[in-house]
């Protein structure tokens, strides 16, 4: 797999270890003949040790066989998140550091998730594209302002804060894009 094909969440082999890509920075030099460079923030699997590495766009990295199992969020076990496999109800426990920023999108009974498994050990999580969440706190709509749509902050049931259109009120259910963290429409 070429470095430019790699996305967040992919698992690759590097220097004899297995790493999951958590963050990608792309830099393109402004000179003639400058190659695009990719800087990956990777975490070892299992273990979670952080490694920063840079690659040229056409460097080869071997993708590791990673099993993706569809699962539903079940409950919290201390700081860990427990997901149940949708087919055979195998519990997969993911530590808070593995879940990271995605924790703000995890609501009770969240389905459509994929737990990433290497050698029977859960190592990562992919969330559905959008998640339905409840707005718990947002300022009221300003009447008679302007005809333009002004976004306003809204606090969601998990503590996550996003910007929503003015017409959204407290207690409404909204769709949130889990990739961008932005409002994606009204739910139901």
TrEMBL record:
- Which part of the chain is the Translation elongation factor P/YeiP central domain? 68-123
| Pfam families reported for this sequence | EFP, EFP_N, Elong-fact-P_C
Please give the SMART domains that the UniProt record associates with this protein.
EFP (SM01185), Elong-fact-P_C (SM00841)
The cross-references to CDD domains, in alphabetical order and at most eight, read: S1_EF-P_repeat_2 (cd05794)
Q: Which PROSITE patterns does the entry mention? A: EFP
Query: What residues does the Elongation factor P C-terminal domain cover?
Result: 131-186
Similarity comment text for this entry: Belongs to the elongation factor P family.
Could you tell me what this protein is called?
Elongation factor P-like protein
Organism of provenance: Cognatilysobacter xinjiangensis
Q: Provide the organism lineage as a comma list.
A: Bacteria, Pseudomonadati, Pseudomonadota, Gammaproteobacteria, Lysobacterales
């Amino acid at each position: 797999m070429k470095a430019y094909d790699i996305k967040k969440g992919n698992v690759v082999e590097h220097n004899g270890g297995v790493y999951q890509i958590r963050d990608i920075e792309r830099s393109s030099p402004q000179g003639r003949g400058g190659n695009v460079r990719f800087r990956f923030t990777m975490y070892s699997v299992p273990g979670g040790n952080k490694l920063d590495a840079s690659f040229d766009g056409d460097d080869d990295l071997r993708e590791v066989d990673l099993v993706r199992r569809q699962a539903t969020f079940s409950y919290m076990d201390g700081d860990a998140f427990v997901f149940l496999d949708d087919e055979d109800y195998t519990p997969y426990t993911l530590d808070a550091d593995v879940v990271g920023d995605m924790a703000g999108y995890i609501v009770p009974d969240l389905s459509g998730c994929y737990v990433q498994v290497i050698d029977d050990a859960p190592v990562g999580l992919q969330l559905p594209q959008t998640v339905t969440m409840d707005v718990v706190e947002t300022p009221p709509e300003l009447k008679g302002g302007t005809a333009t749509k002004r976004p306003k902050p809204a606090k969601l049931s998990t503590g996550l804060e996003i910007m929503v259109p003015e017409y959204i009120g407290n207690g409404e259910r909204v769709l949130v894009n889990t990739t961008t963290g932005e409002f994606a429409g009204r739910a139901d």
